[in-house]
Backbone:
């Protein structure tokens, strides 16, 4: 899976061959072919692996309050965390563009979409429950909106080289200003919940 | 250009050949090759043609007030207007994913991004000027946000088959609730500007 990641970053999706993946691993092309029917089969497993990794990594999100955890989660989604991030984002966009032609890719991409929406909707619902977010916020609609914005930030980064960090700024102020109750609207003092907006 | 559009919708970007384009036109493959160096060259001209068409079509946007025109413009962006829309959206996403490998595509995609942002920023600035939108709204930041959301809606439609119309609903309420001044915050009565929110 690491070799597939490196090969995708190096060659992109369209040009990728099993040989490229073998070259990045300590296995021969024959051994890889023994385990996977071909490039598509291997990439289906790779997307499955990424989804499982994503679900595990985001099972517990650090932060004292739901709002802090939502900031943190979106930071994680929109911040490039290694030097191959640009190339990997491009490869994922190529795979998204293949989705209408490939039911197996589409299933994995839907799994990602669903997992991302669910995580966000849960955090928003927790924030409402905790009296940190406005009670009239709809967790599902908010999650759907933020996932769309996330896809947009990724696409624009690839298509027109616009840094996704600019969307992150917007997202942070959206959480603080649109989702969070203003301090004077809250039931009682909540130091933790206020910490972020005062930064 | 019409033949290129039809061929892209039928075959997608990756599989498209000059022969496919010739088959959709009344020209021979030889004639097309006489005018264009190959598929990339033809598609660069096609993107150029789309951009010019887009700029001309959106030079005047119907609507009585800036808010109405902004609603109309985003309706236009996010509504599929023919039966090939799904296939065409996929082809455009394939081209976006090629952008890092192709400077000429990137230039055209940047032209689109810029034209879309400029149209939106102008409408938002007009709305502020007319006292219809809040004076603390930033036209450039709003335009950038809406363009990101537009890209996200297009990408999710292709990647996970989520209808872009759902984003359109969000966008309409964003204009009415976040950009527009509430009727009681306005300087004077403005029947036209109120018409939309009362629908």
Residues:
């Amino acid at each position: 899976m690491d070799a597939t990641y490196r090969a995708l970053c190096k060659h992109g999706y369209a040009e990728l061959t099993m040989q490229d993946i073998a070259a990045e691993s300590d296995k021969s092309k024959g051994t890889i072919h023994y385990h996977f029917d071909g490039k598509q089969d291997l990439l289906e497993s790779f997307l499955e692996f990424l989804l499982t990794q994503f679900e595990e990594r985001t099972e517990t999100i650090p932060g004292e309050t739901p709002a802090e955890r939502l900031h943190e989660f979106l930071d994680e989604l929109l911040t490039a965390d290694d030097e191959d991030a640009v190339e990997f984002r491009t490869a994922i966009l190529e795979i998204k563009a293949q989705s209408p032609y490939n039911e197996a890719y589409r299933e994995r991409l839907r799994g990602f979409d669903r997992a991302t929406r669910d995580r966000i909707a849960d955090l928003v619902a927790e924030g409402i429950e905790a009296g940190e977010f406005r009670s009239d916020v709809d967790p599902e609609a908010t999650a759907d909106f933020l996932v769309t914005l996330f896809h947009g930030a990724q696409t624009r980064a690839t298509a027109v080289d616009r840094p996704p960090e600019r969307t992150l700024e917007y997202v942070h102020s959206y959480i603080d200003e649109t989702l969070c109750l203003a301090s004077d609207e809250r039931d009682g003092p909540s130091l933790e919940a206020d910490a972020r907006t005062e930064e």
